Each structure stands twice: as structure tokens, then as C-alpha cells.
């Protein structure tokens, strides 16, 4: 067992925008009008069309100048007002160059997204989680079943239109929710009865 | 007070009743007819204790509670802390955490119970032999805690019957000790016959 | 089972046991002396391990396909602690989310708080004064030590060494005493908040931390004396659960799981946050990537964390602990009496909370398990629009099926202990 001395990182973080290394590679593979690059807080997110996803990520992984070998995470952001409601983000890290890039894909509920499990074994579980919680349609996945929720769960909880509900908090003014309708006290008219209706 | 006759046999006086002060038939000299208290003291000197079967059975049950390992989340860490050297749970007899529910009689549900875990919880409870008790440790087990959402069962008493609830997030190890003591008092107050279900 | 007859000189047994390729095909479970020579065939037994099992790592279910005692396939089944944190974040204001983050990685809650707070502070663009940063470092490193102590205690307990379990809790209780002194709570402190801390630390904090730091290295020597040179421990852990560096990286492993395989990646070094670049500490790295190396890495990490705490507490600067930005952090009580703006800020922050500008940021900290990342998306409101938590144990656990391939069933427990998972991170 050895210990590594102080200067283990090759580039000081924060002086460059993270993710710049990916840009020339992506420009070689995707036409420029289909790339959307967003830089926020020193981090670069590059949106590409779905059909180029597999090629781009494979290039990012294997290219020696980029070497994004570590799959950090894969996630999804739901913007329900849009047609392509999901921003599917893949965060990849290059340990050699100490760099992080986010590759984004805009998708709807029906868009077929290729699985990256063949490139990164670690993505397998992340894709299952996105399928479980968002209902993303991922193709060529080795084992696309629910991972966090029971197998017979209906619905995809992290969608914005999914109402997450445990039970109403019982205060003195809404205790009647626990009673059946015929047992509820008569002095409370129906409109005021309880602050939340029991689902 | 000698209860032994000449040849060493134990002699219990035929008439044993508590001495009543002021009654007409009270003995003139206290101590001639033994009071119940004196009788008990004398018997104790010979190594005889009087009690009821229910009390002895209850004492045995509450003094050697064997918890089943059911630590789920953060409360499990405080449960482990309660069984360690500083807050010693083995003082109260509940040291032996059994891995198999078949050998346990106390289930301490320590932590939040998710929807996927609910059937497992019920199965483990069913596998425990009677008599069994359940302590619901922490806010999540008692009522869902701070997680009022789709994923957490709002209180394990929706799944298993609970004897003692411990509030806290997580409760201090002393809270768990307090719950075990309360459970011991509850068991002591439970007559034997009612446990035959 | 009847006692098997001896094999005659020409290799045939006395009774008609069928022989295939010169090897007697005896029913599995027969006399031990023949089992080594038998190929067990294609029959795999599938057994279920968990979700309730004595390895105190949480509610993890493993479906193991066994060939005798050897694991041919291992499929982890997770989700038994799924709490819906990410959905809950979307319905709480940013400061209200801090107590929720405590409960994710519940062995080292302040580190979760720190990760979340840093992500939101990046969105807001606020700076924490140096005293606040140093105290954050002290609290985070103390909780890292506490988490590693639990790991060590339970890992040793799984392998049969109960003494380490008792010893480690003795130290952990001292750290929890410090946590209780500063925040009132032993575990879920919610001490590190967006914009700074709960409050400045009381005067007894520095002497308590100094006392802890003074005696902790001898304690680590005690633990190492119990285990590191122990032949039983070594025999059970050396060469087990080997994870090579390329596989570890491709699974997304981080933390000691990755460093045990020789990759020197530590977020505190690669992307320093909260003044970690001001402290001298080493990043221990293993060689073979087996269970023993990961054990050595974590024990060394405890020592390094103690070193960081020592430096931080000696160099603790004075000054405020919270950001001066009144739109984020509550103003001091005295100011509310004199300044109208402070009163309005106090009101706004207490009722609706602060509103970071719309944007997206990924911020990572080094938790005791690896890279704990928060992808925070804000739409300009007072609640996170989407907060994705990248739990290190999620990725580390996905490598388990690779690590236990062809190991004995009893060793699966050792490997799980060595990856140091916490189901709160895995299932969220």
C-alpha cells in the first residue's frame, strides 16, 4: 500500500470550464446545428440528438485525448410543458485529465434511448433507475426492470405529474379524513370537511 | 421464629392469617400466631418464596427478551449503540440479538419501512413464535416520520401490532432502553392466560 | 448415506457406482473424500440472502446462484429502503431539505449536508467565510472518522471479531458527544446549512476536539493491533474480492473501493472544496484491490482525517461563520431591531426561503464511501426543481456481482463489508 503525494491532480480545477475536451470530438461526430452547448457555473453540458448518443459516448470513452472512463451518473429532468419533456443527462468523468462533461439528450416518453450498459457497466443500474422513476424507454438494455420500487408498482414517481402522497397530517380540524363518510360528524359541512381529501 | 419441629420437619401453623390489630380475637401477645409477613420472612429464611405462576412466567419473559435483528436505517445505528458498552442493553436482558426470527421474541423495528419492505416485515413478524412483542423505534417506524410520501409506509402499525412506540429521529439509545423497560413493565402486567392465543 | 466402498486397484469401486471419464459419479453430499474429484455439473442452487440478515449493512437482498459453496452469479436486489428523497426535495425549500439530506448516508450525516449546501451555494453564488469553512471541514472529517469506525466495527463483526465492534463504538460515542455539543443532536445534526452553519461553535468545542485528536491515533493503533497482523483476518481477506482498476472505473466506483484498486482519485484532492486545499493530507491507495487493501486504505484514511482535524483546529480563524449575504442567511438578531431591510430579509427567508437563479450545477464531495454528488436544477423558485443525488454506494454496489464471482458464500459477507455500502445512499 502506498500513499500518493500532494499533487495528484494534473490540472487545477476551476480555471477552465469543465468539459471542454469533449467539444472537438463531438463536433467531429455531430453536425454543428444539432449541438447545443450550455455552460453554467463553469460546467459544460452538451445536448446532442438521440441517434448520435451511442457513437458520441463511445468516442468520448475511447479517445485518448478525452478518456471519459468513469460513469458518474445518469439522470433525467422533467419539464412537462415541453414536447420533449425529459432532459436526459449523462455525466462522465475523466480521471486522467480530471474533467467532467455532461452529455444531454432531449427525449419524450416515447423516444427510444440506446443503452450505454455495453460501454459502461456502471450505467446499467442508473438506466434502470431512470426507467423506474421516469419511465424512460431504453433499448438494448440487459435487464430493464424496476430497481427501486416493487415490481408491480404502477406509475413513475419522479414525473412532475405524479402526486406523491403519504397520508394527510392529522390536525384537529381534519381528523375526519380517517372516518368513513357516514361516520363523519354532521356539524362540518362537506365543503369544509378536512383540508385534504383522502385519495 | 422457629417453624421446625423437634425432628426437623417443617411445621406450618394450621391457622394462618394476618394479625388484625384491635379485633376481639387478636392475640394478646403479637408474634404468638404468625402474621403473613412474619410467615413470609420465615419462609424466606428457609429458602421458600411465594408468588404466582403468572408473575414468575412474566419475569422470565421480560428479563430475557431476545430481539430479532431488524435494523433498517438510521435508528439501527442507535440500536447498535444501545447494545454497546456505554448504553448497555444487556443489563436489561436484551443482549442476544438473534438473526433468525424463529429464535426471537422481540422485534425492534428500527428505521423507515418502505413499500417494498412491508411484506418482508410482516413475514418476519409471522415467523416469530408467540409470545412476541414489537417495539417501533423512531418516528419513521411509528408514523412515517418526516417522509410523508409515496415510498414509506406511514407507521408500521399498519402492518404489525405494536406494543411500545419510541419517538425521536433517531431516538437516543436511552430512549430505546426506556422503551425496553416500559415493555418489561407491560409484560409484567400481562397475566399468563391472555398470551395463549 | 452409506459408507462408500474403497476403490479397487484398477479404479473401479466394489459396488456399481457409475463411473464417467474415470471419475465416480457420486450423489452430491456424499463422503467428503470424493467430492474434490467430482465436477458438480450444471445444477446451480439459487438462494436468497436478505433483506433481513445479520450483516448489519442494511436491507440488501442478494440472489446468489451457487454451485456448491461457490457463487456463480450474484444479483443484488435493492429498493428495500427507497424513501423517495428526490421527490421529497422537490416539495421542500432548500433549507428544509437539509434535514432530509441527513438521513441519506446516515453514518456521516454532516457530509451529506455539506454536499447539498455546496451545490446550492454554487447556484446562489455565495461564499462562506474561512471560519465557517474550517468548521465545516472539522465536522465533516469527524463524521468521516465516525463512519469508518462503524465500518470497521461491523466489518470485523461479520468476520467474527466482536471486540473491534465494542472498541469502535467507544470512539464513536466521543465523536457523537462533540456533535451533540455543537448542534444538540447526536446523529442527524443538520449543522451544515446553506449559507454557513447552524451557529458558531461553543467555546468547549476546540478543547473537546483537541482531546479527541490527541488520543485517537493510539486508538487506531489498537484496532490495527487487533486486526492488521491477525492471521485469521489476513487469511479471510487477502486475495478476496479482487477488483482491478479498469473495472472499478467502468463501474463508476469511487472512494476506498476505487482507491483500494490503485486509482488515486479523491474528490478532496481533485476538486477541492471548502478549504481542503489548505490542509496537508495523504490519499492512501492500495495495490491489489482485494478486501485487505480496502481495509488498509480506510484505516489509513481514519488517520489522515484525524490529521486534517488537527490542522484545522489549530489553524481555526476567527470571524463570522455564515455568509454575509442577507438574502440567503438569517441576519443576526440584534440587527433586526435596528434595520428595516434585515427585518424584511428575515421575514422573506423564514417564510418562503431564498430563490437561487435558474440553472443547473453538479457538485461533488468526498463522503466516507466515495463521490457523493448533487445535480441541482433550479427554475428560479424557492424549492429545488430537481435534485439528483449521486450516491457512491449505488455505483460501488453494482460492482459487487463482479467481485464475488467464484468466491465462497461465506466470503460474500466479507466483500460486502469491504465495499462499505449504506443502503440510504443506494436506495435514496
Give a written overview of the molecule.
The complex is a heterotrimer of chains A (199), B (197) and C (428). Chain A is an alpha/beta fold and 199 residues long. In chain A, 15% of the residues lie in helices and 23% in strands. Chain A is built from three helices and eight strands; from the N terminus they run E-H-E-E-H-E-E-E-E-H-E. Chain A has a five-stranded mixed sheet with strand order 2-3-6-5-4. A two-stranded parallel sheet of chain A has the order 7-8. In chain A, strand 5 and strand 6 form a beta hairpin. Residues 1-15 and 188-199 of chain A have low confidence and may be disordered. Chain B is of the alpha/beta class. Chain C has one domain: Cytochrome-c3 Hydrogenase, chain B (Orthogonal Bundle). Chain C has helices spanning 32-35, 85-89, 94-102, 109-124, 130-158, 162-183, 205-227, 231-237, 245-251, 256-259, 267-270, 291-314, 333-338, 340-351, 392-398, 400-403, 409-419, 423-427; strands at 19-20, 23-24, 45-49, 61-67, 70-77, 192-193, 196-197, 283-285, 359-367, 370-378, 386-390. Chain C has a three-stranded antiparallel sheet with strand order 3-4-5. A three-stranded antiparallel sheet of chain C has the order 9-10-11. A two-stranded antiparallel ribbon of chain C has the order 1-2. Chains A and C meet through strand 1, strand 4 and helix 3 of A and helix 2, helix 9, strand 8, helix 12 and strand 9 of C.
